[in-house]
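Model it.
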Amino acid sequence: MISRLSVVAGACAVAVAGAAWLLPLGRETRQTPFAGPRKDSRWAADDSRAPVVRELALRQARVWAPPPDPSTVDLAANPSDPDGNLSGDVVRCRYLDGPHEGTTPKFDCVLPNGEIVKVKYGSTTEIQGELAASRFLTALGFGADRMFLVHHLRCFGCLRSPYYAAWLLDSLHLRQAVQSRVPDDRYSDFEWAAVERRFEGSEIVSYDRQGWGWWELDRIDPSRGANWAERDALRLASKVIAHADNKPSNQRLVCEAVRDAF
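Modeled.
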């Protein structure tokens, strides 16, 4: 009869072997270290005025700006990349550990200049969908995150398949122990990954709500913000791209230029 101790020992051995398999295989010594991760720019966070600021911003919100001539836009090309961190033959970043969220393989990564980006990898069709949708919205003049298709991304500190590794290690309560033992010079490579840069601006947040709901578009004052035609055009564009997962947390309210009046 197999003892309980034997079962526990066997399970531990399997867990240790699995954790070892997850360790990245590549090794590269970087000449220039990565900068520390830059925090997202936020406005009115943890502030008693946050609900008031959010309401004011919502009432004068805009959803559209005149775009360049759509006929000149190349929807198959990546967006402009002024700093060049996403344009090299090999894009390098450092893994940023965080909560395990969603159902799509993804992780946060820090670029050499400290910018935090989201990386999606694997065979998920969300990669093609987000690339097409973000470029379509941008070409029409609507605000959208900038999506880059990267042929070769090298993630330092990444376990093999970090999304699923995090799920497995969390279930075994081993994530911190394993992740802390990954050497700084070890990396995992990802082919044809999607890298998301957020739409530039300071996010307006409130302690009692996140993002904005589509029903709140009706609260915009057309004399100060988006008119009815622009709001209806945004609704139509959301239908074209099949934006079904449209809970408020998936839409951000941002300020492109924070004024002293706030």
